[in-house]
């Protein structure tokens, strides 16, 4: 929501500059295409950095706000981009947002939110384990569940990177012709 408001209230000069950038991209994309494997690699690397930061924040309570901030930043950027596309391109902007932003973010944003909530719970469980001096069975259960949840989260990030690297560029190719 905050990202959308920021896009709507941004200065016209900034908007004109960003629109010119988007126009250049949209006119060049059908001609040049995209290196899908490179997009996948960059996306996966960015997602892994985000996952590492969120995972570490569950182990160190004082880093939890940093992990939560990352979720907020992702939401801000997504809201800003969608609102900006709508502002500049109206109905075509909706189509562009649905094709280029929505597919991976339908999975990514809920996954980020759920994983961050889980990391907060994990941090609380770890604190409780230290406080009561729990046995090894309970510790193994807590740590094993954390490992399983992290594995599921990483699998979802892999799916998002695959969508962003291979599906979105394929769908974006014909859509860009509407902007030329």
Notes on the structure:
This protein has helices spanning 2-9, 12-32, 36-59, 64-100, 102-132, 136-176. With 180 residues, the protein is mostly helical. The chain starts with a helix and ends with a helix. The model has no long low-confidence stretch (mean pLDDT 85).
**How many strand elements?**
0
Look at the helices and sheets and give the structural class: mainly alpha
**Average pLDDT level:** 85
**Proportion of residues in extended strands:** under 5%
Q: Determine the fraction of residues in helical runs and give it as a percent range.
A: over 70%
Measured on Cα atoms, how large is the radius of gyration?
Answer: 20 Å
Mass-distribution shape: elongated
Number of distinct helices: 6
